[in-house]
Amino acid sequence: MYQERVNQVLSKMKTLNQTQLVVSDPMTIYYLTGKMIDPGERLVALIFKANGEHVAVINRLFPVLESEINMPIVAVDDTDEGKGIAILANQLNYEEKIGIDKYWTAEFLLGLMKQVGKGYSHYFFSSDITDEIRGIKSTEEINLMKDVSKDNDTAIGLLADLIPLGLTEVEMAERLGDIYEDLGNSGFSFDPIVAYGANGADPHHMNDESTVKKGDSIILDIGGVKNGYCSDMTRTFFYQEVPDKSREVYETVLEANKRAIAKVKPGVTFAEIDAAARDYITEKGYGEYFTHRTGHFIGMECHEAGDVSAINHKKVQPGMIFSIEPGIYVPGEVGVRIEDLVVATEEGCELLNHYPKELTVLG
Question: Which residue numbers delimit the Peptidase M24 domain (predicted)?
Answer without folding.
Answer: 145-346
